[in-house]
Amino acid sequence: MSHASFWELMNFGPDGWGWSMLRGAGMTVMVALVGFMLGGVIGTFGAWAKIAGNRPVRVAADAYTTILRGIPDLLIIFLFYFGGSLALSAIYRAFGGDGFIDFPGFAAGAMAIGLTSGAQHTEVFRGAYYAIHSGELEAARAAGMTRMLMLRRIIIPLLLRHALPGLGNIWQVVLKESALVSVTGLIELARQAQIGAGSTRQPFYFFIAAAILFLAITFVSNRVFRFSEAHFSRGVRGAR
């Protein structure tokens, strides 16, 4: 198979790598999605801390975003993977076990991506909140809306409308960062391409296939975000 063509290598038969590459792409989407969602949760609390927190809370939130922006993403993944392995092994030995336990690569990658993207989510949500016109909130109060009703019917929809372009950019960054998770041994798309390239000694075909799959994921993702932006912007042009 060392002189096989691209289509022979990427077919979905018993000797092809098609299904393996698709499984790798699926793992890439999963780790990126979990990390993105975790980052969204962290970013929600981070934005709240910067907007409504007291001074110590705001200082802590500022320190978080500053530090995470200054540390390389690959280093964060290593810290979670090796630090998690050391912690699990220490707990195991504390209960009488003997040996070393590897921290799951998926968990390490998703947590690292979530922590790093959380800093970006924080700034996006914060900027989106301040982009909401004060007159819209005053009108809601004048209509007698409760705080929770205002949050559900006014603040969250408007915040998402302003945040979606930034969230789309974060997702693209997270998707590319997911390739770094391969250093933990997780077989995602980049790692699967490396395995295939090493087995067949035809790296060009496998990395081309990986690039095509990344582009396909990006294309679908862009369509989803554009649809979401159109959904949350309904009536805006008409109102103008």
UniProtKB/TrEMBL annotation:
Pfam families on file: BPD_transp_1
Listed transmembrane segments: 20-48, 74-95, 204-225
Which PROSITE patterns does UniProt cross-reference here? ABC_TM1
Entry's Gene Ontology cellular component terms:
ATP-binding cassette (ABC) transporter complex
Kindly give the InterPro entries that the UniProt entry links to this protein.
AA_ABC_transptr_permease_3TM, ABC_transp_permease_HisMQ, MetI-like, MetI-like_sf
Is the keyword Signal assigned to this protein? Answer: no
Q: Which GO molecular function terms does the record list?
A: transmembrane transporter activity
| Name this protein carries in UniProt | ABC transporter permease
